[in-house]
Amino acid sequence: MVPVIALVGRPNVGKSTLFNRLTKTRDALVAEIAGLTRDRKYGEGKVGEYPFIVIDTGGISGQEEGIDEAMASQSFQAIKEADIVFFMVDVGAGITAGDRMIADYLRRSGKSAYLIANKIDGKNPDVVLAEFFELGMGEAIPIAAAHNRGITTLIDYVMEKLHPKVEPEEETGYLPDEAERAIEHEQLNIKGTKIAVVGRPNVGKSTLINRFLGEDRVVVYDEAGTTRDSIYIPYERHGQDYTLIDTAGIRRRKNITEAAEKFSIIKTLQAIQDCHVCILVLDARQGIVEQDLHMLSFVLNSGRALVIAINKWDGMDADDKQRVKDEIDRRFGFLTFAEMHFISALHGTGVGHLYDSVDQAYASAMAKWQTNMLTRILEDAVGSHQPPVVRGRRPKLRYAHQGGSNPPIIVVHGNLANDLPEDYRRYLANTFRRVLEIKGTPIRFEFRQGENPFADKTKEVKHSSRRRAEAVERTANVRKNKIEKARKQLKKSYQKPKG
Fold first, then answer.
1. Which parts form a coiled-coil structure per UniProt (predicted)?
2. How many domains does the chain have?
3. Domain encompassing residue 470
């Protein structure tokens, strides 16, 4: 499962700066949830094939009162949620009472914690790090978050601890985290389409989940996995297997109300990472709010297939319904690939149609295509609309192949492929989506430029031709030399005096 890293420490030691470095904030999702999460901020990062979740917390000084005390409490809660803790200190300030208090708490918590010494730039690590051994947290890892120094080394070191390399005799065909997940899923009988029902509190997730698990469904069993209290619920519908990933907490059928549900961004992020299809539930009566957009950003950044359910549609008059539709068109107009359903989870209205969209989205997200088919689509697209000229040259797109699934990734190769303008990339994406009938899932493109894959063969032909030409030339020279030698011998024989 995706590991969770909490950043803790006193105020102004650089936690938010490190958070932005780890999550690459400009590109990756960053959500600051008000209310329950208070000062905590959640984001996602990735090293190679390994994603992770980062929690940025408020500072802990050890002398909190009032609102500061509540914020410190949230920081301690983040430590409990995390798999790994980055305990940050400021090398310029030295050790403080707050640092000692945090170190003592971490030692007693038993959490896997790393001491991170920030603001090391311009200082001798051997000198300034020595005093931090006093905290009993082991050797400090020096970084300069503001200047991006030491960040890669830090995260590579931690990821190596989390995902040790598999020895050849132990290889399973999976990446380490995939192998762990495959074993866990086999033990829990998790199979079929994995569906994550996500959304902010009180939009009707629990009601919808219980509607999914109604009398006409066969629930195999309900058992907690090792996924930070997310519940995997395998069941069958019309002969097809599904698994619900329930982020709302343990419930017994219909006797848990939505009001009792506890919102957890950690569970939601992990469920989104692990599912095939997300159902994002919105409340029609409250309209679209900021937390809905945060939740949507989680799904879009993960690349997961998406179905949107606008719940509590029953009982609304025509004017209110039109107002909601207008708002959805205005704020979600860019979501052309996602199916939207207006439902009532309480009464079951429209819920059955969700399955049609889920099945369609799953099929598109997991589809496989042959390289010759994708290359043919690329050639037709280029034939209908040539790429625009870039710096006096027109890009030549040569071939395409599939680079992955969930989401589908199509890799396009050609000269100047990296320089294609954004509007032409959208044209290609729309063309592939239309021809391949991809629905319900985002589609990602990778553009790679380089030599023609057949260039080596062409070089071999040219090299062979050159060798043959050189051989012919050598033969001609040998023949020429022989003729010249014979001519000289003949001339010499005529010049001999007669005896």
1. none
2. 4
3. 460-499
